[in-house]
Design a protein that fits this description.
This protein is mainly beta and 341 residues long. The protein folds into 2 domains: 4-149, Lipocalin (Beta Barrel), CATH 2.40.128; 156-341, Thrombin, subunit H, CATH 2.40.10. It contains 6 helices and 19 strands. It has an 8-stranded antiparallel β-barrel. The longest helix has 11 residues, at 316-326.
Length: 341
């Protein structure tokens, strides 16, 4: 990327996965020079320019928007345990400077540090004298993505489960409704790869959707160790849910919660759903509800925020009816290897 436009396009496309430190920043640097601890007025100054911050593994690197600028100075941020504090590291050849960078407001990043001797000589040239110190106070203001970009591209994250090796996945209709695009991660346990997907059918009445991975990089989904139950399940039966709730804070490891079938009807007596005591959170929607034998008996789709331990799952028979109506030319998962575990 070698222009503001290229960086802006990248941030806009990936806005739902960005860390708060990623973006284009307008940087104000206040230089203060000292000689034997006395402030030097003539050398001190302020400077304004733009930089981009982008993810590089678990860290974030600072990029010159103009690629023609020198690459002898490398800057990066590393997250700390505090979500608003980052460890800043500045490398000039073999000289390393460190500081704590603090996000002190929405889109405001501040930190200061003392420049190393080698870099100071490079910056001051003939004005440099032994005994000089150079302090930089930086205030970064994020110019992009804007608040409107985040709002317009706000993502809904949900769970889904595969029903065929060729990429058919079941989720909830409310997870994908009105989506500009749908992306799936976690295929074959790979959470770094995103695949494009398309809607095959959406049943708004029963809150069920079937999507298909539609991506040239996709090959197949490996072992599917469960099947769809053909039987109703009784009140008091043990069940458990798998899903990816609150990914931004709880991470990508799959979460298991368990409970009982509380009733064979859902919210306000809805006969299409079970009421369950399984705890669920935003992000669980679309995930499978299993019985003790590892058969899928429902699709998690809601919780009652006004009651404790009251969640809901669409009965799997409504998914089976939907699939039968489509006459899809695919082989659905029929083997349950979870029952022996």
């Amino acid at each position: 990327m070698n222009s503001i436009t290229a960086y802006a396009d990248y941030y806009k496309e990936n806005v739902t996965d960005l860390d708060q430190i990623e973006g284009i920043w307008s940087v104000n640097v206040e230089f203060k020079a000292y000689y034997n601890d006395e402030f030097i007025q003539g050398i001190s100054k302020s400077q304004y320019f733009e930089l981009a911050v982008i993810r590089n593994g678990s860290d974030f690197i600072v990029c010159n928007i103009d690629d023609n600028k020198s690459e002898e100075r490398v800057q990066e941020f590393t997250p700390s345990a505090n979500p608003n504090i980052y460890f800043y590291r500045r490398t000039f050849y073999d000289e390393i400077t460190k500081a704590n960078a603090i996000i002190s407001g929405i889109g405001i990043l501040e930190f200061s540090f003392e420049v190393g001797e080698k870099e100071m000589k490079k910056m001051l040239k003939e004005k440099y004298k032994r005994g000089m110190r150079f302090k930089l106070k930086q205030k970064w203001i994020k110019s992009y993505p804007t608040k409107e970009t985040y709002i317009n591209k706000q993502a809904i994250s949900g769970t889904g489960f595969a029903i065929s090796n060729d990429g058919l996945i079941v989720t909830c209709d409310h997870v994908i409704i009105n989506a500009d695009n749908i992306k799936v991660r976690g295929i074959n346990n790979n959470f770094s790869k995103l695949y494009n997907a398309k809607v095959i059918v959406a049943d708004n009445n029963n809150d069920i959707a079937v999507i298909q991975i539609d991506d040239p990089d996709f090959i197949s989904i490996e072992n599917i160790p469960y099947n769809l139950s053909g039987n109703s399940i009784d009140v008091g039966s043990s069940v458990f849910a798998l899903g990816y709730p609150l990914r931004s804070t709880m991470g990508d490891e799959i979460k298991l919660t368990d409970g009982l079938i509380s009733a064979k009807s859902g919210y306000k007596g809805d006969i299409t759903a079970y009421q369950i005591s399984v705890p669920v959170q935003p992000g669980n929607s679309g995930g499978p509800l299993f019985d003790e034998s590892g058969n899928i008996v429902g699709i998690i789709n809601a919780k009652n925020s006004m009651a404790e331990n009251a969640s809901y799952a669409v009965k799997i028979s409504y998914l089976k009816n939907l699939l039968e109506s489509l006459s899809l030319k695919t082989d659905f998962a029929v083997t349950n290897t979870l029952s022996s575990k």
